[in-house]
């Protein structure tokens, strides 16, 4: 694989998923190398370690991708997304590096540190050499964690910047922090039963095996799709959420809790069998479960301000459920960085995308208030969630813990509300940039007149809701629709798709 870019190569853009594309068309080598340069320059600029993860998450095994992490584990800041794009597309790389060094006032004597991680894709190992080459070229060192989940990379990047010495940085730190928090919360419980985890044939199997072993006295974690099949193929959180069906290899039984993670283990969905039928508990449900718990425990008198951040994809029934409980909700644009940012406005911000990506953020004021009000149980929960980024395994333990704390079965959880029938479609048009949206992607402002026509269609069905937006990761426009019945929902989504087409 070449790590050099041929002049005139098609331009790429750093988007919500970083850079992503086929791993076999000769482009990913230079893209990852230059992302190594970006991560190193960002580290030099801040005087702190940054992270670099090589993964294409839930995408097929032939794809790959790369993403840069800020020192505390957040997504790269917007102006550096622009610099990453410029560095990656430059014909004259050295000139572009010099330009960034000048414009960002990076000291010429500074040295950066980049924490590097990769998923299990066959192309990922070679790409981590590409990243290292870039990091060295940008006058920095790399610390290669090898095969890790995306949230492990974020967490360890956070830890090193919070003072963990380099020589103490290892995965045991990650596993002990989260298992200890879980054991603390469940110290008075017996065995909590069985959870079967679909690992998507990805890196989740490594994390899953560790948690299964470390928590065997409390919960029976059984792993499926644990490396015997193709990555993300007919399995994983995206497959289960999109198809609303069980992954391959899962012979579902009543009374067992099931969940699926995606290829880099930052997304989680639960499901179970109810009267012989598959029932999905997605990111909206996870958010509602945690929010319900917080509201019950905090009670009316607490000074802790908490709320839930969703996107337009959140099922309307979940938003109504939260509003009926008097829990604040906020809607943001799609993409974790937007949700994460909005969640920071609360003392405790619960954020989840319907697709299962999310976490709970506790700010310093929340911790101080919880301590003052004596909420030790919630303080323990704050340690169980990976606050740097959505983490399928930490979220799974949080779900298990909250079900236990509420004394709820998965049936009780499912009974919170009934989803409105919904449908998500992809429409391919000549130029998806023609579709422009505002109001957290719920209102279309271009092409002119489209939103009015969409409103008229929505008005024809009961409980109708629909929006269109250009995908940030694929060359398509997404059409989402919801209505009171599956039939009306299909009718509405097809009519809206025809408007866009
Ligand atoms: C990216 C986002 C994910 C979002 C998805 C939407 C992050 C880490 N990932 O995968 O949150 O749901 O894009 O994709 O922000 P779309 O723009 O193609 O619909
Ligand atoms: Zn993922």
Automatic annotation (TrEMBL):
Pathway(s) served: Nucleotide-sugar biosynthesis; UDP-N-acetyl-alpha-D-glucosamine biosynthesis; N-acetyl-alpha-D-glucosamine 1-phosphate from alpha-D-glucosamine 6-phosphate (route I): step 2/2
Residues annotated to bind Mg(2+): 57, 262, 264, 266
Source organism superkingdom: Eukaryota
The protein's required cofactors: Mg(2+)
Binding residues annotated for substrate, in chain numbering: 353-355, 469-473, 478
InterPro entries attached to this UniProt entry: A-D-PHexomutase_a/b/a-I, A-D-PHexomutase_a/b/a-I/II/III, A-D-PHexomutase_C, A-D-PHexomutase_C_sf, A-D-PHexomutase_CS, AMG1_II, AMG1_III, PAGM
Database matches in CDD domains: PGM3
GO biological process, one term: carbohydrate metabolic process
Start and end residues of each Phosphoacetylglucosamine mutase AMG1 domain: 194-269, 282-408
MF GO annotations: magnesium ion binding; phosphoacetylglucosamine mutase activity
Residues covered by the Alpha-D-phosphohexomutase C-terminal domain: 459-493
Annotated Alpha-D-phosphohexomutase alpha/beta/alpha domain residues: 43-78, 91-161
Active-site residues, Swiss-Prot/TrEMBL: 57 (phosphoserine intermediate)
Record keywords: Isomerase, Magnesium, Metal-binding, Phosphoprotein
Reaction equations catalysed: N-acetyl-alpha-D-glucosamine 1-phosphate = N-acetyl-D-glucosamine 6-phosphate
Cofactor binding remark: Binds 1 Mg(2+) ion per subunit.
Keyword 4Fe-4S attributed: no
UniProt keyword annotation of Chaperone present: no
EC code: 5.4.2.3
Function text: Catalyzes the conversion of GlcNAc-6-P into GlcNAc-1-P during the synthesis of uridine diphosphate/UDP-GlcNAc, a sugar nucleotide critical to multiple glycosylation pathways including protein N- and O-glycosylation.
Family: Belongs to the phosphohexose mutase family.
Name of protein: Phosphoacetylglucosamine mutase
Record organism: Oikopleura dioica (Tunicate)
């Amino acid at each position: 694989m070449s790590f050099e870019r041929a002049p005139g190569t098609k331009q790429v853009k750093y988007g919500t998923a970083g850079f992503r594309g086929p791993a076999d068309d000769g482009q990913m080598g230079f893209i990852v190398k230059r992302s190594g340069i970006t991560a190193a320059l960002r580290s030099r600029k801040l005087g702190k370690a940054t992270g670099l993860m090589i993964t294409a998450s839930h995408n097929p095994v032939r794809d790959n991708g790369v993403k840069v992490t800020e020192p505390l584990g957040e997504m790269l800041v917007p102006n550096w997304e622009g610099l990453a794009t410029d560095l990656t597309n430059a014909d004259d790389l050295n000139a572009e590096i010099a330009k960034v060094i000048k414009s960002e006032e990076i000291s010429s004597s500074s040295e950066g540190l980049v924490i590097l991680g990769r998923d299990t894709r066959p192309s990922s190992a070679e790409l981590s050499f590409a990243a290292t080459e870039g990091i060295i070229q940008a006058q920095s060192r790399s610390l290669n964690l090898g095969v890790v989940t995306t949230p492990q990379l974020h967490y360890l990047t956070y830890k090193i910047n919070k003072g963990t010495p380099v020589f103490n940085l290892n995965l045991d730190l990650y596993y002990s922090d989260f298992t200890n928090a879980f054991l603390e919360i469940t110290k008075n419980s017996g065995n909590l039963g069985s959870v079967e985890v679909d690992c998507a044939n990805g890196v989740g199997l490594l994390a899953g095996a560790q948690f299964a072993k470390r928590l065997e006295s409390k919960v029976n974690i059984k792993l499926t799709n644990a490396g015997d099949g193709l990555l993300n193929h007919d399995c994983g959180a995206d497959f289960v959420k999109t198809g609303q069906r069980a992954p391959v290899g899962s012979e579902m039984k009543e009374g067992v809790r099931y969940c699926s993670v995606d290829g880099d283990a930052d997304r989680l969905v639960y499901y179970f069998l109810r009267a012989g039928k598959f029932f999905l508990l997605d990111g909206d449900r996870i958010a509602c479960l945690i929010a319900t718990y917080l509201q019950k425990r905090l009670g009316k008198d607490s000074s802790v301000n908490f709320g839930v951040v969703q996107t337009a994809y959140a099922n309307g029934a979940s938003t109504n459920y939260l509003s009926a409980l008097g829990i604040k909700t906020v809607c943001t644009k799609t993409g974790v960085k937007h949700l994460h940012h909005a969640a920071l406005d609360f003392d405790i911000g619960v954020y989840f995308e319907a697709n299962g990506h999310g976490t709970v953020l506790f700010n310093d004021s929340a911790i101080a208030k919880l301590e003052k009000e004596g909420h030790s149980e919630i303080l323990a929960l704050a340690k169980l969630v990976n606050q740097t980024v959505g983490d399928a395994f930490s979220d799974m333990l949080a779900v298990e813990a909250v079900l236990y704390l509420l004394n709820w079965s998965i049936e009780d959880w499912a009974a919170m509300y009934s989803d409105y029938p919904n449908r998500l479609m992809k429409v391919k048009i000549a130029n998806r940039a023609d579709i422009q949206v505002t109001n957290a992607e719920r209102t279309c402002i271009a092409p002119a007149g489209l939103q009015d026509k969409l409103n008229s269609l929505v008005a024809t069905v009961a409980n109708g809701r629909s929006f269109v937006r250009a995908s940030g990761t694929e060359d398509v426009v997404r059409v989402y629709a919801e209505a009171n019945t599956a039939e009306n929902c299909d009718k509405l989504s097809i009519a809206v798709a025809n408007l866009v087409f």
